[in-house]
């Protein structure tokens, strides 16, 4: 056993030596593919000087449509969502099943990630302060998309012989279109989605996360980990392996418990920074509003800011991509629409609360000192904004980033697994194969340069929102009917609060 | 309170066995009906992985089946041997709160529970179900040592 480990380490050490060569050949091979896929998926049209990717337009139109079609459910369903999460409507006889709170918490730890810390900084760098405004608007509209997705995720899930459940867009696309008399098309869409989520799970749900975690650790360590990417990758892969294959639930459980506290810890200190920058706050807020409509200094003006804001919001809260509905589908409820209500809160927490706080940290720091971050962007920029007041903060921030990355990897390993089992069946052997592949990619994420590989995965994740949202349009009447029936039951008192 | 109902809370411990024996004697003397309750500790506010959530339903079923087989079943047969009318409830939740809810639902006249005999520090940190019941139950609580 020891000999195997030594051999493995030697191979990896050698691999990192040969890494430059491998990187180049991988790049040479994947770059043209990435470029092609990227151009197709992010096909841009020129509108009044701004570059508008069609796929972003597709997501925005969907979100606006669902908001109107569902009668502003994102506003009007908010109070009911809180009541459901609080357990006001939970039947004590079904206690022990997955609660609404648990489903929401699981989905939120899948979406809250590096994007909430670093993605916002990127949005502000490219799109100016005004991008924040559109980010919030996108989060608000995304709440309606989530509502539709997650209701369908529960309604059309499949119960496996062993009593576990599988749900998500691949299932509602297939069964939904089947119901509407288009079984062939439904099958195609379901398969397409499953392939997309599987590859996405290896990219943005895996390599991107492990890579960013490594970069953060290395920054905090002052570059001491240069060239040790293979080691960090191996350790991370080992921990992920222990959780998803070894079934060591305790690690996962600890992470799932720590992540919410990290999120609260992050928001707490972010608010302190905002308060320390208090004199800059009015100016920062006014910048957000004026920037949103004038787009000063932004390529493409106000429209440019809008595009960046929307793009980053989708990256962060995944509304329209459908991934969260895989997690939400685990809830056991007689009324699928209740899970839709609960899922409204996800973009709210992720985008409207956490992203806005990050944006204000950066915005107020910029007002106080326009060059506070130098050339840094992404996580490093956010880190610099904290560092102005708390020199010790980058270390816990790196730790938080590591945990966020880890919990996102665990969640996405499950999303990818569901894509895999949809394609290849629920067999244990196949699941183990998938999990081994997943772990290998965790290590790989720390070793190879990400550029083109990430571009492909990024593009594919955005590509799966095409069948997903198309499906949502077709199935939206079903969701609306469910919603109306549910509201009627609430009014007549057929469904009421327990004690 | 038309019926004479005793709610017996058990958890498979030796304290619960003593409580069971005591309840049988009481019920035989007073002609009471006994509801045997087993609460599986569970919180709706925990944080789980997606996989745990997906398997939750089947795990719940097996937890309930196991409780019936290994804890509730033997207790029920022990009581029916004494000619006592019995009923049983297995439920997930916070033990104290759930037992109080069950006591209300079954209109129990009293709750009988065994004592674990935990040390001071342990019960200070984790609390004790018997202790909490004494403080908050709406009906008399009998703690069997």
From TrEMBL, chain A:
It holds the Pfam family Na_Ala_symp. NCBIfam families: agcS. The lineage of its organism: Bacteria, Pseudomonadati, Pseudomonadota, Alphaproteobacteria, Rhodobacterales. The chain crosses the membrane at residues 30-47, 54-73, 117-137, 190-208, 228-246, 258-278, 284-308, 341-362, 391-415, 436-454, 460-479. Belongs to the alanine or glycine:cation symporter (AGCS) (TC 2.A.25) family. Its main location: membrane. Keywords: Cell inner membrane, Cell membrane, Membrane, Signal, Symport, Transmembrane, Transmembrane helix, Transport. This is Alanine:cation symporter family protein. It is found in: Cell inner membrane; Cell membrane. The keyword Cell inner membrane applies. Residues 1-20 form the signal peptide. It is a multi-pass membrane protein. The keyword Iron does not apply.
UniProtKB/TrEMBL annotation, chain B:
Residues 6-145 form the UspA domain. It comes from the Bacteria. It holds the Pfam family Usp. CDD domains: USP-like (cd00293). It comes from Parasedimentitalea maritima. This is Universal stress protein. Belongs to the universal stress protein A family. Gene3D superfamilies: HUPs (3.40.50.620). SUPFAM superfamilies: Adenine nucleotide alpha hydrolases-like. The lineage of its organism: Bacteria, Pseudomonadati, Pseudomonadota, Alphaproteobacteria, Rhodobacterales.
């Amino acid at each position: 056993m020891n000999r195997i480990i030594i051999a493995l380490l030697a191979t990896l050490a050698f691999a990192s030596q040969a890494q430059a060569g491998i990187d180049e050949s991988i790049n040479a091979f994947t770059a043209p593919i990435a470029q092609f896929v990227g151009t197709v998926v992010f096909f841009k049209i020129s509108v009044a000087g701004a570059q508008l990717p069609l796929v972003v337009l597709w997501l925005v139109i969907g979100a606006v449509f669902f908001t109107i079609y569902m009668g502003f459910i994102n506003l009007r369903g908010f109070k009911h969502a809180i009541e459901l999460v609080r357990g006001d409507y939970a039947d004590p006889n079904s206690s022990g099943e997955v609660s609404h709170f648990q489903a929401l918490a699981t989905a939120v730890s899948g979406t809250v990630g590096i994007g909430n810390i670093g993605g916002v900084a990127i949005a502000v760098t490219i799109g100016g302060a005004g991008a924040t405004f559109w980010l919030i608007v996108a989060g608000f509209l995304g709440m309606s998309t989530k509502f539709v997705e997650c209701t369908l995720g529960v309604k059309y899930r499949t119960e496996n012989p062993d009593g576990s459940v599988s749900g998500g867009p691949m299932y509602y696309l297939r069964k939904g279109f089947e119901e509407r008399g288009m079984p062939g098309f439904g099958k195609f869409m379901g398969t397409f989605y499953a392939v997309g989520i599987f590859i996405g799970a290896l990219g943005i749900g895996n390599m991107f996360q492990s890579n960013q975690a490594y970069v953060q650790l290395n920054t905090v360590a002052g570059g001491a980990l240069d060239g040790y990417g293979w080691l960090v990758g191996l350790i991370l892969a080992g921990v992920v392996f222990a959780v998803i294959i070894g079934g060591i639930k305790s690690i996962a459980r600890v992470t799932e418990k720590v992540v919410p506290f990290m999120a609260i810890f992050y928001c707490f200190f972010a608010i302190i920074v905002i308060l320390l920058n208090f004199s800059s706050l009015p100016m920062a807020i006014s910048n957000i509003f004026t920037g949103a409509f004038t787009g000063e200094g932004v390529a493409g003006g106000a429209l440019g800011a809008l595009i960046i804001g929307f793009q980053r919001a989708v990256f962060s809260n995944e509304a329209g991509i459908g991934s969260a509905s895989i997690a939400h589908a685990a809830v056991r409820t007689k009324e699928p629409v209740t899970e839709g209500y609960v899922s409204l809160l996800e973009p709210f927490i992720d985008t409207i609360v956490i992203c806005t706080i990050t944006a204000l940290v950066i915005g107020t720091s910029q007002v106080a000192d326009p060059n506070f971050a130098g050339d840094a962007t992404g996580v490093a920029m956010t880190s610099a904004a904290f560092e102005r007041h708390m020199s010790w903060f980058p270390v816990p921030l790196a730790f938080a980033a590591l945990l966020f990355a880890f919990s996102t990897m665990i969640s996405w390993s499950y999303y990818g697994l569901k894509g895999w089992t949809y394609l290849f069946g629920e067999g244990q052997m196949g699941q183990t194969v998938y999990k081994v592949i997943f772990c290998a990619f965790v290590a790989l994420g720390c070793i190879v340069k990400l550029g083109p590989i990430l571009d492909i995965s990024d593009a594919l994740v955005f590509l799966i929102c095409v069948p997903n949202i198309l499906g949502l349009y077709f199935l939206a009447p079903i969701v609306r009917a469910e919603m109306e029936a549910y509201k009627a039951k609430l009014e007549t008192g057929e469904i009421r609060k327990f004690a | 309170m038309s019926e004479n109902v005793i709610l017996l809370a058990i958890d498979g411990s030796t304290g619960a066995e003593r409580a069971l024996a005591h309840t049988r004697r009481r019920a035989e003397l007073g002609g009471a009906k006994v509801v045997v309750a087993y609460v599986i500790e569970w919180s709706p506010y925990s944080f789980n992985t997606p996989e745990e959530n997906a398997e939750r339903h089947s795990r719940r079923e097996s937890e309930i089946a196991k409780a019936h087989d290994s804890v509730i079943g033997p207790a029920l047969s022990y009581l029916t041997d004494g000619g006592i009318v019995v009923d049983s409830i297995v439920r997930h939740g916070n033990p104290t709160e759930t037992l109080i809810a069950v006591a209300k639902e079954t209109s129990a006249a009293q709750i009988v529970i065994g004592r674990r005999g935990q040390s001071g520090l342990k019960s200070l940190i984790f609390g004790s179900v018997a202790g909490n019941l004494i403080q908050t139950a709406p009906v008399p609580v009998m703690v069997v040592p």
